[in-house]
Protein 1
Amino acid sequence: MAVRKIGQRWYYDFRIRRSRYRGVIPEARTKAQAETAEVRIRNQVFDRKYNTQADTLTLVEFIENVYLPWARLNKRRPINDELYCKTFKEFFGKKTFAQISPLLIESFKKERRESLTIHGKQRSPASVNRELEVLSRILSMAVDNSIIESNPARKIKKLRLDNMRKRYLTLEEEQRLFAVLTGRRSHLKPVVALAIHTGMRRGELLGLRWQNVDFARGLIYVTNTKTGTTGKCR
């Protein structure tokens, strides 16, 4: 608590978003009374500075009047932001900034993840994360404009991305590939065959030594794998 006694009087001294507020607390006789009064004064300042707009200004109004004009002026492809903002308008409707909580944003994230795209496909985690990034940028701008004190979207975890994609060559594709491994490319044929049938990475293939190959048992011992362990291939 930012209170101190000078002479026979207690004074408060605190900051809210880099603005300093100081004054006397004439009714206080003890430190406890001064601290209680300081909390009341701090809340009054905060309510006067922030909550009036937060309670009345809707997210949609801020998007239309502040964010989108800024995006159209400063971004090379504002069309993406306009599409995202259309989604925000549909979900948040007439919600004021005071009503936008981390729990509500979590509901938005869940709904978007479970909904389908216009093509009838499952919406990807990456798409939802991009929407959350733009929403967070809007709320940060509201903080910069002294409408809210903090950005509730900062507490939201992004969806985990699964970028793993398994792709196998078909028999026809293998045949076409081996068909071009002739002449100057013929030295690549055993390397490609080994890669196809073992799934080894380029670094693992190029790092092979004769001592890694067990011809009798038909095994290849792979060292320095991506996981840092030693593996076996047949």
Protein 2
Amino acid sequence: MAEQLTRRVVVTGLGAVSSLGIGAHAFAASIRAARSGISPISGFDTTGFPHTNAGEVKDFDPRGLLDQLDPDDWGRSSLLAASAARLAVTDAAIDPGRLARSAAGSIMGTTSGESTVVQSLTEQWSRDGMKGLDPRLIGQLPASQIAIAVNHELGLTGDAQTIPTACSASNYALGYAYDLVRTGEADFMLAGGADSVNRYTHAGFYRLGALAESVCRPFDANRTGIITAEGGVALFLEPLETARARGARIYAEVLGYGLNCDADHAVAPNLDSVARCIRLAHRDAGVKPAEIDFISAHGTGTKANDVTEAGAIRQVFGRRPPPTISTKSMIGHAMGAASALSAIACGLAITHRFIPPTINHGVTDPECDLDCVPNTARAAELRVVQNNALAFGGNNAVLILGRYEGGETA
């Protein structure tokens, strides 16, 4: 076991189904070009809402992406996750049959689970009572279906776990999957998350006063909140020796992660706890703050989150932190998929040697005081990057990725 504990883990496949495109290459092109995936909501009736934009996946057709699942049998979040996983496996250029014969599984994060199914069932109950509920939809309801869908689509027989730690869930999933591969409990793992745009999440953030009118402006003095979004995302993890033996393209190496839960407040982040989580991640990865080349922040665009996160970053890094960006300015807040979408952005940034921008930026809030790479991507040689995820209930997760230095990456 001691030898297994030193096993290095790399990311060799990326799958993204997002408002910025489907597939890793489309996603990379969009973030590099500083595009916005925000548009008027079409997934539910927005009558009565003063704010009606979201980051929806407008061109999502699961029938064109999936080989095994019948879309009629699964909820939208499960289909987003399974589609992303299929894309990640294709991107990794590994034989799906090999996965089915191996110790391989999936760990997926979520905030609202099968939220569009909940929405439909709630409408049925409200209109027709319990007897009016569609049994087919009831079968799609459990949040556990999200990871189960991934395993069904790919024929995997290993773990199929859905982690519900809200907006940090997919970083939790990545850390768990990393541990399974690192310790030899799994040969291959898919990790990421999925959530769908829905009425009750949109309404909840509006009632909290955390919903932006039209765009998300992280770290900007004039920011007003989040933009709800959706997506499915999966990263394919495998041991370094396996990747090298099969000549795989390596996007990044997983160096380590940190998790903590302060349980200090239902919705407000705790500065000291976030700083501790960052330090835990650095210690686990064996890196120092000075070695971090850029940070993909949680960066929701709310007043409280951005100031608290910036303060925690300065507590760890001092007065001159590395460039700190927020992909949510482009994608919106994809809830349980958010931190894995940011992790994909980190892997692509390492591979293609650029720092993604924070768009919609005008004037930096003096209380944030970060180099947020405003509006335009920046060329950069990146060796070590940090991916932050902060969630309601104080569930913090920080992932550290690094450039694989043993040869060509991608």
Protein 3
Amino acid sequence: MSATSPIPPGTLDMLILTTLARAKTLHGFAIAERIEQLAEDVLRVEEGSLYPALQRLLLEGWIAGDWGRTAENRRARYYQITAAGRRQLEREVSSYRRVTAAIERVIQPA
């Protein structure tokens, strides 16, 4: 069995928004690294999921992005959460907690 797991469906946006709310500004690869680090390498952020999610969040207005240079002088887009993104994050975290609490009630031993 692998030590890492893919991100559960429906949670990647919440994880990206949370990461940006904590870190202020990060480029895509750094967002993925930070999520994996905070999850103690249990979760794996796939590039094929990350960049479409970032584009979707940009289109929703939940994050903003500006082009810049990495420490290695590579061109990268740096993202930050917007006020609308913070409101969306609150909604997503609330919904996630409600659902996980319900699942926990179902799987608890009788």
Protein 4
Amino acid sequence: MQPGKSISFTFYADVATGDWHAALRKCFRDKMLYEVKNFDNSLYKRNDLEYIRHAYTMHLMMAWEKNYYSTNDSSYTLNEF
């Protein structure tokens, strides 16, 4: 993102009774992933983000992921990962 720019996200949360299967059913079947009527596709269409249209696989990691950060010696291990 460019300096001075901002981005916002809408976070949806809900409560489901039962086990995690019930929560998935509510999210994917009953609420249709909380689909919005007017989906904003502008980020996907940006020229500077065009690469993502062809990125079918990606690996998401948290900053404290044990494969990315070693708590033993407080070092980052991304190259080894």
